[in-house]
Design brief:
The protein is α+β, with helices and mostly antiparallel strands. It contains 13 helices and 23 strands. The protein folds into two domains: 222 residues, Alpha-beta prism (UDP-n-acetylglucosamine1-carboxyvinyl-transferase, Chain), CATH 3.65.10.10; 209 residues, UDP-n-acetylglucosamine1-carboxyvinyl-transferase, Chain (Alpha-beta prism), CATH 3.65.10. The radius of gyration is 21 Å and the shape is globular. Bound molecules: shikimate-3-phosphate.
Amino acid sequence: MNTNTKVDFIVQAGGKLTGNIRVPGDKSMSHRAVMLGSLAQGTTHITGLLEGEDVLCTLAAFRAMGVRAQGPDRGNLTIEGAGLHGLKPPSRPLDMGNSGTAMRLMAGILAGQAFDSELFGDESLSKRPMKRVSEPLAQMGAVIDTADGGRPPLRIKGNRSLHGIDYRLPMPSAQVKSSVLLAGLYAQGATSVTEPAPTRDHTERMLRGFGYDVDVSGATARVQGGGGLRACNVDVPADISSAAFFLVGASIAPGSDLTLEHVGMNPTRVGVVNILRLMGANIDVLNAREVGGEPVADLRVRAATLRGIRIPQDQVPLAIDEFPALFIAAACADGETVLTGAEELRVKESDRIAAMAQGLHRVGVDAKETPDGIVIKGGKLRGGEIDSRGDHRIAMSFAIAALRAEGTITARDCKNVDTSFPGFAALATKAGLAIGVKTV
Ligand code: S3P
């Protein structure tokens, strides 16, 4: 990848979204499928894998540790698992790119290995907090050095004997929960994690799919160390976090009628549908079914008049990645939308509260940052130029905002859209967005 290349989106105002589309595979599940497939005994076949840069970093890391895999090719990946204790020492530091999920979950896995390793990331990832995983892993007996302020790179010592802990998460974080549970596979005794609010449970579900017992009781998930993973087939559904841009786009653009196919509808991920419906969105959940232990459905969304709301606290962790898109819905709604209790947004790929508030101001929307959220007054959107700050979700949110803007929206620094949604511009064009991509 040429890191000097910059990409801008130039999106003409107006239009509507119609037809049937399938967005790429779920990022969270794709990471986990590659990880568990690599650590399993036997051959795992994955279909629907997200071939985004984040997941490719995870796959490259396992290849660097001796795992053999064929693909990915159109979402198909076959992994010859090395077994929980079959990874080989990598010859160089492992690049986690832009991905917090990759770095935090890999830290849990690598803490249990017999060799030293090092994880590093790009400019954005290098600023993100890692103490949230290095601390509980240290309580389990791991030795992990971080850079100043608990930032990457992470230097992880091998050959430590880990022991189970009962860990209470200080913040709702599926990444931290998963990191500790994955280290728990290598620990003596039981490891439990108790969360302050439900977060995505793909790790727990997928561990079970790979034949590993996970005991879930209320807010606590528990694993016993010393077991093994059995290879299996994983069908990754379309990513609801990528579908979110189209759910918002079709809601705000008059005349839209769009169906999103085979979308993952795990109850810990559906906050975006719940919140949009509270705002008055017209979303039908069709053909609900279960695929490989995960609920899936087709979502038909038609344009609707949205109203501002106070976003319920319990929906915040369930929609944590969808707030940039939801802020665009709020900007197009009648009245005020208030978000609180979402300080985690400040430590994502960018400070998403600041990035969105600045972008909304640029297109003439009244948005006030608060320490843990934002207040957005719905109104007219002008055209304008916004800075995505290298954050994929900021870029895609302002791209779909053009559907309701009065002039062209130019979003700068959009290259990282490839981390989660390769082919976004082409798929959005197919659905009706007048988006141009300029490489500078
Ligand atoms: C993820 C968990 C969330 C989410 C991220 C993916 C995961 O992060 O924002 O995009 O796959 O576990 P936190 O656990 O830090 O909230």
